[in-house]
Amino acid sequence: MYPPLRGGVATLPLLLLPMLPAASSGPVAFPVPVDPAAVKAAAVTARDASRTRLVLLGTGTPNPDPDRSGPALAVVVDSVPYLVDAGPGVVRRAAQAATAGEAGLRVDRLDRVFLTHLHSDHTAGLPDLLLTPWVLDRSEPLEVLGPPGTERMMTHLREAYLEDIHMRLFGLEPANDGGHRVRARDVEPGVVYRDERVTVTAIPVVHGSWPAAYGYRFDTPDMVIVISGDAAPSGTLAEACDGCDILVHEVYARAGWERRDPVWQRYHAAFHTSGYELGELATRARPARLVLTHQLLWGVTPEVLLAEVRSRFAGEVIYGNDLEVFR
Predict the structure, then answer these.
(1) Which residues contact 103 (CB under 8 A, 6 or more apart)?
(2) CA-based, 20 to 30 A from 146: which of 1, 34, 124, 307?
(3) For residue 297, which of 59, 117, 122, 86 has the smallest C-alpha distance?
(4) For 267-293, how does the pLDDT look when each residue is reduced to its tens digit (9 = 90+)?
(5) Please, which pLDDT band fits residue 48 given cuts at 50, 70 and 90?
(6) Cα Rg, the chain, nearest whole Å
(7) Which of 85, 121, 245, 322 is catalytic?
C-alpha cells in the first residue's frame, strides 16, 4: 500500500569497513575490530548530510504552557518546508528555527501546511501563518490541505482580515498581491500531495467524535516520517509506518490519567493514546525512532511517561521538545 522505505540506514565510509584477509597458506591475520566510536561518528555524519529535516515547532496541548507552542512541526527537504498543523506560535517558532540555522524555515518561505484536524489548538495559528509571511514578502498564496471543513474555514479566516488586507494593498505600506491569497483544499485519505521532493499521504485516524482526522506519511528521497496528529490508537498508523525512520506520536501518561475525573477519562481515552498503548502500537509499527509530542502528564514526570512507553516498546524513544531537529 505504501512505497518502499528509502531511508533509515546510514551508509558508512568504506575506510571503516573491515577488510577480509586474502587467501594464504600461512597464518591468517584478522583485522582490528571497528572502533564503535568511529562507527557512531560516521552515522552522525550521514545524518548531518541528510536532505531531510524534521523540526518540532510546537509540542504543546490546549494547556498554555509558555515553554511549548501549539501543535506544529515541519518536514524540511532541500530547504523547502512542509508544515503539519498551525498551533499558536507557529510563525515565531519557525523564525527561531531559521535563526538557529534551519534556513528552510525562514518566514517568507512558509507557504504550505497540512492540517490533521480542525481542533482550535491545531489551527489557531493559521491567521498568523496566512498574513505574517505575506507582510514579510511571501509572494505565493498559502496552500492549506486538510480534512473536510478546511476550505470553508480558510475562506472565513481570510474574510475576517479583509480590512487589514485592503489597507496593506492600498495604503502606504508596500505589499504584493499574491501572498495574502489562499489555496485551500479538502482532501480524502490517500496521496494528497506530490512534488520532486516529497510524497504526502493522508492516513485516517481515530480522534474521538471527529468524523475525519488524519495523520500524514512523508516519503522523501532519504527518509520516511509518519506523524499521528491527535489520535487514539490507530492501526492505520502502524501500517503506514511499517519500519519508518521516525514516528511522531501524541501521548498521555496513564498514571496521570488515573487522577482525572471520570468524564475526562472517558474523553481522553476516546481521543488520545496512553503511554502503554503507544508502546504497543510502536512495537507493531517498528520505527527507527519514536518521538513523543503533545504530551499530557497531569502532574506526573516525563520519566513516568517514558517508562510507560518503554515498558511495551524496546526501540528508541525521544521525549520531544520545541525546536528540536531530527535528521
Answers:
(1) 79
(2) 1
(3) 59
(4) 999 999 999 999 999 999 999 999 999
(5) low
(6) 22
(7) 121
Q: Annotated catalytic, 121?
A: yes
- pTM to 2 decimal places: 0.86
For residues 269 and 75, the answer to whether their CB atoms sit within 8 Å is no
Residue 15 reports pLDDT greater than 60: no
Q: Which pLDDT belongs to residue 50?
A: 84
CA quadruple 102, 108, 114, 116: dihedral sign: positive
Alpha-carbon gap, residue 278 to 132, rounded angstroms:
36
pLDDT digits (tens, 9 = 90+) for 110-168: 999 999 999 999 999 999 999 999 999 999 999 999 999 999 999 999 999 999 999 99
CA–CA distance, 278 with 309 (Å, rounded to integer): 6
Inter-residue contact 127 to 160 (CB < 8 Å): yes
